[in-house]
Write a structure and sequence with these properties.
By secondary structure, the chain is α/β, with parallel strands linked by helices. Helix content is about 20%, strand content about 20%.
């Protein structure tokens, strides 16, 4: 789900064509009856009203739940600090690129793109999100329950980011992962 929780008249999904079912979604017709189930879990900023700051770490289509949260927070006129680190293969594969830029004017949002294969003129972050990069952008003070970090993306990226967060001193209970698989 990538729509705002505040916009109850429409439900938007962002889906990567990866499996047998997801490859067929593009052939659905407007008005076609569908059955949905979920969402399951508790990957939401609403579960952390005590937080003074949020950090969203996304990789590829893992931006999906963050778009829902960012749209919701913008609708609510949220003013807490939000960091979004968004890792993508290259500039052309950045999903929601223009809308993310626009959201910066509606939220207290810092947007950091990290490109694995940047264009020649790229001056931003490159490679993969690691402890050094996280340490540059996350607050130096990481007191328990003040910064809540949310992670969603490819499994190897998420595992690496979780290890890096632990390495730089983010308390284990203050980061939360959304995995696109049944556990």
């Amino acid at each position: 789900i990538s729509s705002s929780a505040n916009q109850t008249d429409e439900l938007a999904f962002t889906i990567k064509e990866l499996g047998d079912f997801t490859r067929t979604i593009k052939s659905m017709k407007p008005g076609q009856k569908v059955y949905i189930d979920g969402p399951f879990g508790a990957f939401s900023v609403d579960r952390h009203p005590h937080a003074t700051q949020f950090a969203f770490i996304a990789g590829g289509v893992g931006i999906t739940p963050f778009m829902s949260m960012l749209r919701t927070l913008a609708d609510r006129r949220e003013q807490r600090l939000i960091l979004l680190m968004y890792a993508s293969r290259d500039w052309d594969s950045v999903i929601f690129r223009e809308e993310l830029e626009t959201l910066q004017s509606h939220l207290n949002l810092t947007l950091v793109h990290v490109l694995e294969k940047p264009p020649a003129d790229w001056t931003g972050e490159t490679g993969f999100i690691n402890a050094s990069m996280l340490d540059r952008y996350l607050p130096k003070e990481k007191a328990r329950n003040t910064l809540e970090v949310f992670i969603c993306g490819p499994e190897p990226m998420m595992n690496a980011v979780e290890a890096a967060l632990t390495k730089i001193g983010v308390p284990v209970g203050d980061f939360h992962s959304e995995r696109f698989s049944l556990v």
